[in-house]
Write a structure and sequence with these properties.
Largest sheet: none
Order of helices and strands: HH
Distance between the termini: 155 Å
Number of domains: 2
Helix content: over 70%
Number of helices: 2
Shape: rod-shaped
Structural class: mainly alpha
Number of strands: 0
């Protein structure tokens, strides 16, 4: 058996303290790493940065349907106006043709 001298006790205490210090440093490093990982997860959590548009309200749908109805009625009246204009042009062409034939006969 070896006797423990004060110098040997001091060396053993220093070695143990160094080992404990390394273990404590590793533990602190692990805690810091865990904090960093948690912070990164929290900052990366909202993967979708844009805002989703809200759905249309009932008032907006009613306004859209009214606009479509008014537009449809407008297109219908425009079609009727075009048809009346076409008929007018056809009648005018027939009348002018008739007049032209009458003028050609009397010469």
């Amino acid at each position: 058996m070896t006797e423990s001298t004060p110098l040997a006790k001091a060396e053993a205490a220093v070695t143990e303290a160094q080992t404990n210090t390394v273990a404590v440093q590793l533990a602190l490093a692990a805690v810091e790493l865990a904090k960093t990982a948690t912070a990164q997860q929290q900052t990366q959590a909202p993967a979708c940065q844009h805002q989703h548009p809200a759905g249309r309200s009932a008032g907006q749908w009613i306004a859209i349907s009214c606009a479509v109805c008014v537009g449809g009625i407008g297109i219908a009246f425009a079609s009727i106006a075009i048809a009346i204009g076409g008929i007018s042009v056809a009648i005018l062409a027939l009348v002018l043709r008739s007049i032209w034939r009458d003028v050609q006969k009397h010469r």
